[in-house]
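Researcher: Next entry in the queue.
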Amino acid sequence: KYIWTHNVGFLDSYPYVHSSKSYQWLGHRMQNITSDKGVLKEIIRDGSGETVPPDSSVLVKFSGYLEHTDRPFDTNWFKKNPKLMKLGEDITLRGLEIGLLTMRKGELARFLFKPNYAFGTLGCPPLIPPNSTVLFEVELLDFLDSAESDRFFDLPPVNCCFSKIIKAAETERKFGNYLFHQTRFMDAKERYKRVMVGWACC
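Model: Structure for this entry, 202 residues:
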């Protein structure tokens, strides 16, 4: 199961990619963020605030490349309203999930993912050859720490304290506002309904 094969060929070129440089050359400039050097990172533009917490929902722009190419095999870079994705559910590329956990809001970064953190020994024919190292350029636009909110709605009402209700309601309100501005009105309505469910526990 892999992600993001539906946008292939969408973007003709992207200015940050050095297609003339080998991934080995790029890797020497990057920071190792896994013990086996399977995920390497270079920050292009610093972000601010805290890093992405586990189980958050993230809003990102990305482009993925094979070596010596300047045409991405997958991208959402020019989408007006990128999809809000939950870590551990919507993002199934292992290296990308690990990389996102090191990022801050507004950060733009380049990652190299070795095969065991990307598409494995088999690749993803015909687009991704076997044993491919891939490069991803990722911009973290925003994130919502939805883990506590999700846990809150799994609790029986008797176990709900006021501080948790406040935090869960605020998270769901932010989700609803985000979806509303994407004109995803029915999805926004469901988030706002969760806010009301939370307040009903008071």
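Model: The first strand starts at residue 31 and ends at 32.
Researcher: Noted, moving on.
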